[in-house]
Write a structure and sequence with these properties.
- The protein has 135 residues and is of the alpha+beta class.
- It has one domain: Thiol Ester Dehydrase, Chain A (Roll), CATH 3.10.129.10.
- It is built from three helices and six strands.
- It has a six-stranded antiparallel sheet with strand order 1-2-4-5-6-3.
- The protein starts with 5 loop residues before the first helix and ends with a strand.
């Protein structure tokens, strides 16, 4: 399967990301940009977005991008730094770029932004399997 089509297939089979309202904004082999808007049901008891919201957006960008090279890739370690509080109506974008693939592990940093403002920094390690994506 052509790598740039894989994230669309993944999203079509991902009920949670669909519920989150995540959309693919840009997609090519080695780079995916996704976006979403924070809804009321995503807020915590302090009326800010739950930390899992920005985490999920970044993790989705990470997973989609890691798979654009045609083989199944799965995360083995992730972490996030929350930099700014997020509110209902905030529009978020996360972009993941892979510069080079040459081994079984991939290391990525994903920036989550609200406009031009960095609101979270996600780091992830992915394991690249030998199993190929099929249509």
């Amino acid at each position: 399967m052509e790598g740039s089509k894989i994230p669309y297939k993944m999203l079509s089979q991902d009920a949670f990301s669909t519920w989150m309202g995540i959309q693919i904004l840009e997609c090519e082999v080695g780079r995916v940009k996704v976006g979403m808007t924070i809804r009321k049901e995503m807020l915590n008891s302090m009326n800010y977005a739950h930390g899992g919201i920005s985490y999920t957006l970044a993790d989705t960008a990470f997973g989609f991008t890691a798979n654009t090279h045609g083989n199944y890739a799965v995360s083995i370690e992730t972490s996030i730094n929350h930099i700014e509080a997020l509110e209902e109506g905030d529009e978020l974008v996360a972009e993941c770029v892979i510069e080079k693939v040459n081994n079984k592990l991939g290391f990525n940093i994903i920036e989550v932004k609200r406009g031009n403002e960095l609101v979270a920094l996600f780091k992830g390690v992915v394991y690249r399997t030998q199993k190929e994506w099929k249509e």
